[in-house]
Amino acid sequence: MKYIDEFRDGDIARKISARLAEEVQPERQYSFMEFCGGHTHAISRYGIAGMLPPNVRMVHGPGCPVCVLPIGRIDLAIKLALEFGVIVCTYGDTMRVPASNSLSLVKAKARGGDIRMVYSAADALEVARQNPEREVVFFAIGFETTTPPTALAIRDAQRAQLKNFSVLCCHVLTPSAITHILESPEVRQYGTVPIDGFVGPAHVSIVIGSQPYEHFSDEYRKPVVIAGFEPLDVMQAVLMLVRQVNEGRAEVENEFSRVVSRGGNLQAQALVSEIFELRTTFEWRGLGEVPYSALKIRPSYAQFDAECRFDLSYQPVADNKACECGAILRGVKKPTDCKIFGTVCTPENPVGSCMVSSEGACAAHYSYGRFRDIPVVVESI
Amino acid sequence: MCLAIPAQLVELLPGEQAIVNLGGIRKTISIALIETVEVGDYVIVHVGHAIGKIDPEEAARTLAMFGELAEADNDRVSPSTKAAA
Ligand code: SF4
């Protein structure tokens, strides 16, 4: 397919790999965090880690919206379905995330909750139109990429004066999460997570542009290269990061210029700010409470805000003790550091959130990377 | 979750909708979130909505940058496409 296949050419990947090997300084260690789960997925799926020089390490970041959704938020959605009897519509990935009381949205559905998987926010709106006698709540999660479609659904619901539609808004913001990581003790003081630069979000940046990342290069002196999700994009971004580090530069560069501009999609931004405002704080799985890192629905649209409409209050819930998702999301640990990785916790039966979506670090490693960990033993007879 | 795919617009429909061709499959999407588009444009589709338009010249430039890299094995190429430009 156009704009996909040509960015997956294996020969060119090997050339970029050779170029990287040539340009890295052997005495130096390079660690780059890929913020987005889309990059984590590409790195595992296309074996990119194996094509990088040994002194270049990729650290997985918290950029998978399913992975960072805390248990307490899923509990709210389950409560809406089981206690308030509303129709809960949500994206497929959220259905299997483990919640409290051994429940998940899938299991709540089996217990009689009317929970429906939708492909888009507009589909949830359609469910509301078709069920005027029922309350319909769209459980909205995602970064800046997924927020504009939710905003559009709320605007359309208002225009159509729909009385039975509301949104449980769990939209979160990328730049505040990156700031939080840079401010975290692991990165700042302890040095347990060295970060020399970031592979910046692809699709998030289509919406918000490359400009919001300039703060990281200016203030924290960290290079950022915004990159597409295809394998050549990721490899090229790593090469561009290596060059910045070698030359002592810290700039925002844009490898994904085919869709990302500095200002981003202004039309989508205007709509988002009409419908949403900043929350003072929001809990992320793995990162805890992060100030100004999420959105809520503006008071003028309160009738479409499920939290107001059903008078919900958020209760934080601790993660499963065995699960290392929190440390993985902060880049402190790798999936294989979790004792139950691949045994008790698998994509079929996830214990933690990182095993649910294919963009989660654990699921990506389970699907594509785990055989690399097994040493090949050749026996001669 | 954040995965989105490039698709070509093949037909504009009323109500800010359009039909895209996704590797042979026709699908109706919303184009309410992007500015003017025409049939033939490639857009990035995410959860049923076009969120951005692909600039064919920039795409060609990025590919050429890889290509150049592929050919010029010995002399350095400096492909920094500065975002802040
Ligand atoms: S393997 Fe499962 S339980 Fe362990 S960190 Fe990953 S998702 Fe969490």
UniProtKB/TrEMBL annotation, chain A:
GO biological process, one term: protein maturation
Keyword Hydrolase listed: no
Domain of life: Bacteria
GO molecular function: 4 iron, 4 sulfur cluster binding; carbon monoxide binding; iron ion binding
Pfam families: HypD
Keyword tags: Iron, Metal-binding
Family matches, as Gene3D superfamilies: 6.10.20.100, HypD, alpha/beta domain 2
InterPro entries: Hyd_form_HypD, HypD_1, HypD_2_sf
Recorded family membership: Belongs to the HypD family.
Protein name: Hydrogenase maturation factor
Naturally occurring in which organism (per UniProt): Polaromonas hydrogenivorans
Automatic annotation (TrEMBL), chain B:
SUPFAM superfamilies: HupF/HypC-like
Family the UniProt entry places it in: Belongs to the HupF/HypC family.
Protein name: HypC/HybG/HupF family hydrogenase formation chaperone
A GO biological process held by the record: protein maturation
One of the record's GO molecular function terms: carbon dioxide binding
Pfam families on file: HupF_HypC (PF01455)
NCBIfam families: hypC_hupF
